[in-house]
Design goal:
Layout: E1 2-4, E2 11-13, H1 19-30, E3 44-49, E4 52-58, H2 67-73, E5 87-92, H3 104-110, E6 115-120, H4 130-137, E7 141-143, H5 148-154, H6 156-164, E8 168-175, E9 180-182, H7 194-206, E10 209-212, H8 214-220, E11 235-239, E12 258-262, E13 267-269, E14 272-276, H9 283-293, E15 298-303, H10 305-313, E16 319-324, E17 333-334, E18 341-349, E19 352-359
Parallel strand pairs: 5-6, 6-7, 8-15, 8-16, 10-11, 10-15, 11-12, 12-14
Antiparallel strand pairs: 1-2, 2-4, 3-4, 3-5, 9-17, 13-14, 16-19, 18-19
Helix pairs in contact: 3-4
Length: 372
């Protein structure tokens, strides 16, 4: 049972709760900034004194104060004397290096926090274990691996980027109820309803990049921007080996930074960047390496079938989001078939059905019961 104290606006827990309860609250706070912290992780922090939350905060956007600092700032003056007797809960190890902001670990030492409870150790090499060492050497009790799997899922993009040195890869497509993603003539065919379309635009604001193949770009003339949901625009990436795409297409409208992957030229025109790469079996690894170098933490692959299947065949996918509509085609381009998949969950979105799968070989597959 949670009771809100009117005078402070914070929470008094009427009976002792587990560390997992507070870490789950950290994860909820962290996700308030979804889509705004990249290439940093999403982090939330909660400060607790004798089962009373006296401060909370999260990392709002890249370059802003980190969660622990915002949490400490959130403590009202009347409670500041309690900080040295309080426990800081945070879903990721406090940072130990000077970046845009000072290290959070040294700030917690300066505030003389009594104990720090952490969900996950930071995989970033400039932090990994160093934040914990700073705290422990200062005499602060540290406990780790609380709700570790849930923490991995929430920051799966960040963990994948630093552990595998590539972006987190999300496959997305819509299919008819008889298993086709487009008519045989590749003409544009609306499969899903408005609710699903809005959700897809929300997803675009949460990921760093979005990609389509040549045929999809030619036939569908997609904008690949978030127009039905407010937020940042992802980096647009299109394969155009021989530069066949007409410049009248939306991908050249400069509404978002765009990479044209080709074999002909390297050129920068406004925010349209032509990047030469060999269109052979090195193409996907080369592209992913380039994205890693540019600190692109995640990418949605939106089609078409050839591009989606190339990622699947190479085993280069972490998550797949598949909409099944109520329409049928009876003939056309067949939807891709996933291998090594584990279903995370399924839900209705308007009249459509959404299934989310994770790669069973992925270290970040703990999706059951979790939000996207």
């Amino acid at each position: 049972m949670v009771k809100i104290i009117p005078s402070s606006g914070f929470y008094l827990i009427s009976q002792p709760v587990t560390d997992d309860f507070y870490i789950q609250k950290c994860l909820t706070l962290a996700q308030k900034a979804k889509g705004h912290t990249s290439p940093n992780p999403m982090v939330g922090a909660v400060l607790v004194y004798k089962d009373r939350i006296i401060g909370e905060g999260w990392h709002h956007f890249y370059g802003a104060d980190h969660a622990e600092v915002n949490c400490l700032k959130n403590v009202v003056d009347a409670d500041k004397h309690l900080i040295p007797e309080s426990t800081m809960y945070v879903n990721l190890e406090p940072c130990a290096h000077y970046g845009i902001t000072p290290p959070c670990a040294t700030r917690l030492v300066a505030e003389r926090v009594k104990k720090v409870v952490i969900a996950n150790t930071d995989p970033f090499e400039q932090v990994s274990g160093k934040g914990i060492s700073i705290l422990a050497e200062a005499g602060i009790e540290v406990e780790t691996d609380i709700s570790e799997k849930e923490g991995l899922w929430v920051n799966r993009r960040f963990f994948c980027f630093h552990s595998l040195h590539r972006p987190y890869i999300i496959l997305k497509w819509a299919q008819t109820n008889d298993g086709f993603i487009a008519p045989a003539d590749k003409s544009k065919f609306q499969i899903t309803g408005k609710e699903s379309q809005t959700l897809v635009h929300k997803w675009r604001t949460e990921e760093a990049a979005i990609m389509v193949g040549t045929a999809t770009a030619l036939n569908d003339n997609p904008q690949l921007t978030a127009r039905l949901y407010e937020g940042k625009q992802p980096l647009r990436i299109v394969l155009d080996r021989n530069l066949k795409l007409p410049h009248t297409h939306h991908l050249f409208d400069e509404h978002a930074a765009t990479w044209i992957i080709n074999e002909q030229q390297e050129l920068l025109e406004g925010n349209i960047h032509y990047l030469p790469m060999a269109f052979d079996n090195t193409l996907l690894p080369t592209l992913l390496q380039k994205l890693y170098e540019q600190k692109v933490l995640s990418i949605i692959i939106e089609g078409g079938a050839v591009l989606l299947n190339s990622f699947i065949s190479a085993g280069l996918w972490d998550e797949a989001r598949i909409f099944t509509g109520t329409t049928s085609l009876k003939d056309g381009i067949k939807a891709p078939q996933l291998n090594n998949k584990t279903e995370a969950f399924a839900t209705a979105v308007g009249n459509d059905n959404l299934q989310v799968f994770v790669n069973k070989n992925s270290a970040y597959k703990y999706a059951a019961g979790m939000e996207l």
